[in-house]
Amino acid sequence: MGYLLLIILLALLLKAAWQLVAPALHLFTRGFWRLPDIFNSNWVDLNAYYLYLFSEAPSVISVYQIDCTDAYRHLSSMYAGSIVKVLQSNWVNPEPKEVEFNECMVVMKGKLVVEFDGGCATIAYGPKGYAFARQLALEFDAFRKKEREKEYEMNVIRMTKNGLVLKPVQVKPTDLDLALYYNDDFMEVDDLIRKRLGQSGDKGIVLLHGLPGTGKTTYLRYLVGRISKRILFVSASVAENLMDPAFMDLLLDHPNSVLVIEDAESVMMDRKLNSGSSVSNLLNLSDGLVSDCISVQVVCTFNSSLNLIDPALLRKGRMIARYEFGKLTADKAQKLSDSLGFSKEINEPMTLAEVTGQQEKTFGKNKIEIIGFRRQEVVEN
Fold first, then answer.
1. Residue 319: CB partners within 8 Å, gap ≥ 6?
2. Which helix H or strand E contains 260, and what residues bound it?
3. pLDDT exceeds 60 at position 148
């Protein structure tokens, strides 16, 4: 009987000791073994951090395309008493010279963590936190970005860990006298482009091509300030995945937009020369069933010849307009040069860049000898 009581007493002592040691042991193992797991390639991973804090996987609610700065200010002012800790990854914005956050994570009472990243707010919560998380999500939705907040604004499509998001950027204002800066045959094309891009629910492709320095990008800056639709800028490498689910979700969330692809040769190359699906994707956007849902118009600029472009893109009904930017005629170049205050006499066609950059220093061409199988050839850079 005495042995039995001794065993029971020993068991109770061990249980009490374990209850005292277990929390400290949990903190020890969590701190030394799980801390590295909370970081991803960029910063702190929300799901891993939540698991680190509360030892359980979270449920999440995401709100996309919001102004994260305003949403964070709202959270900080309305729920200051519920905020336990704030983590931020910051950067210095040169204009207007302010410190802004790329990512922000707010730990709140009730096992709830809010992450702001790339125009997206993600709320992680536990089994009893759904009601509060839902309330915050609805409040954050009030900070959804407007169709077009500022003149001369476009939205760069960028990839984040939350998927594709839009980053609004300001474009340098360009107020051009087109009749002065471009050849006379461009005036009618410009009228057509601005008219079609201004129509709600319209679709189709605009192709702007020509030699470097002939004014394609300058015209795009001008165009940004002349249309009221949301403008989405995408690099050619990202545009090759136009029909990916993430890209389609983005376009479905922003119908009736203008998609601008600069240096789009790789996206538009003839399918006989390129086995990729980029052209098919572009065709679906401009004239397929998908285009009926999203009404996205596409503006492509490129330097190569039309001979390399897939003929299907040039079909009537799909094409809004196309224009080849060339050198200004000698008379046109002379008028522009005179208006800019230059005294040079111009007797031959010149590119827009050559006329406007007359004060820039011109460096001589360097000859580079090619070695190897083409050893005897010399090219000029």
1. 204, 205, 207, 313
2. strand 258-261
3. no
Q: Give the chain's mean pLDDT.
A: 81
Fold match flag (46-141 vs 167-325): no
Q: 157 forms bridges with which residues in the sheet?
A: 166
Q: What pLDDT score does 170 carry?
A: 78
pLDDT of residue 277: 55
Q: Does the reported pTM lie above 0.90?
A: no
pLDDT at 195 over 90: yes
Alpha-carbon Rg for the chain, nearest whole angstrom, is: 30
Overall CATH class of domain 46-141 = alpha beta
- What residue ranges do the domains of the chain occupy? 46-141, 167-325
Burial (0-12, 13-18, 19+ Cβ within 10 Å), 128: exposed
The half-sphere exposure of 191 on its side-chain side, counting CA atoms within 13 A, is: 6
| CA distances, 18 to each of 54, 73, 81 (Å) | 20, 44, 35
Which residues 6+ apart lie within 8 Å of 84 measured at CB? 107, 108, 109
* Dihedral over Cα of 303, 306, 310, 315: its sign: positive
Q: What phi and psi, each to the nearest 5 degrees, are found at residue 316?
A: -65, 145
Q: Output phi, psi for 106, to 5 deg.
A: -115, 115
Place of tokens 């482009």: 193
Q: What residues does 237 pair with on adjacent strands?
A: none
Q: For every residue of 60-93, which 3-state class applies, written as one string?
A: EEEECCECHHHHHHHHHHHCHHHEEEEEEEEEEE
379: pLDDT strictly greater than 60: no
For domain 167-325, give the CATH number: 3.40.50.300
